[in-house]
Structure formats: structure tokens, C-alpha cells
Structure prediction request, 270 residues.
Amino acid sequence: MKMIFQIKHTKQNLFGRNFFKIFIIFLIILVFVLIFNIFGPARSLASEIFSPFFKTGNFFYERMSQIPKIFADKNKLIEENKKLLAEVENSRLDIIDYESIKYENQKLRRELEIRPEGNFIAASIIAKSPQIPPDSLFLDKGFKDGLNNGDLVLAGERILIGKIAKMSKNRAMVALNSFANAVSYGYVARTNEPLEINGGGGGRLETKVAIDFDIIAGDKIMVADSFTYLAAIVGVVEEDQSSGFKNIFMSLPVDVSKISIVFIEPLTSE
Prediction:
């Protein structure tokens, strides 16, 4: 059995529900605009509602406007920092120059105080033991300055410490009186008795005399040249009865480690 269904056609209304919804929304917006334009309190209310957004916008606007100023200030600080660094470096160099001049001034004053009378050449010690062999000094003067091998080397007024042993144009090596196997001749200042002075190395001088030779600890040993110089100080006197001799141990008149300037008496001076 066949069933027949009849399709019912409905007539669509042009002004349906969607139309009314849109119309109602339009009316609400229109009313809100009218109220906002007419009534001040409503306007104030809207302003209060949207003011946080306005304030946030103003904050970012102000910060963005300050960015060029921040970069300008940074560049200015960088330039000032460079100038300050340059001034600090100049001050450091000035201090170095001052200290150098101060050292040279002190050196000159000391040289003038201890310079012996006569035709002497001043020289600075640029090396000493342990940089070079023991009982030797390295000077900043050479034969171009008038030095000669064998010239006497003084540590001050009439204090003889050695002789020029080797040199070049601008440098000279001094063998101290205490240099191993160095031999010089002097006398005891107290008695005028002559004796031989032998270098023992390590700043030590020594000699051997007869047991009846008059010499005691503290005696000064002199060397006569164009002038009379102090060459050694007696430290220890040991008697050897079995051999019939005295062993004499002496030292240089000055502590060479504490001096920085010496004076050379050229052999040509009279």
C-alpha cells in the first residue's frame, strides 16, 4: 500500500526574527549615543570606564617620546667617560715622569754629597751579583767616557772598592778588591805596617802575616796611589801558633749591595 505525503509550503516572512534583532541592537546603540551627547554624568561615566585605557596609552606615548633623549644621554656619557679615561692616563704618565725626575734628583744629590775631590768620572751601577759573577759590578760607562782598564773605582770620598777589569764602548766591568785571587798592596793605618791584600770571594779579603805582626780587629787597611784610599776593614785575627802566622780576615769598607753610584779615577789623571 502506497503512502502519499503532501508537502506543505510555508510562506517566508521578510521581516523575520533576525531583522528584529538587528533593529533592537541599532536602537540600543542610538539611545547610548544620544545619552552620551546629552547627559554629562553619562559622559563622565564613560570617561571613567575608558580612562585606564587612555592613561595606558599616554604612558606608552611618553616613554616612546623619551627614547631619543635616553640614547642622546647615553652617547654623552660615553664621550665623557672617554675624556675621563684620557685624563686618568695623562695623570698616570705625569706621575711616572715626576717619580723619574724625583729619582734622578735624589741620585744627583747623593752623587754630589759623596763625590770625591779630583778628576773623577761618576758611573751608575746597572748590575751586580747575582745577575753577574760575584764580587763584580757592571757600569753604564765605557772607554768613550774616558775609562781605562786598571782605573781605580771608589764608592765615595777616598773609599776604594776595586778596579776596572774589562770594558766596551759604553759599559765597564769592575773587579772588586774581594774578587777571588785579586791582589793589592796596602798598609795598616794605625801602624803604617805594609801588607798584601788578597781577594777571597764573596765580599771577603784575607792575608797572612807573621805571628808578631801588630794588627787587630777594627784596623783600617789603606792603599796609597795619587791619593790615599781606605780599602778594607780588619774583622777577625786568628793566631796559628804551630805555623807562626796570623790569618787576617777583612771586608770591604762599604756594603756594595746598598750603593748605586761609583766614581772612577782615570789613570791619566795626575
Notes: The mean pLDDT is 78. Residues 32 and 42 are 9 Å apart (CA to CA). Helices lie at 17-38, 40-114.
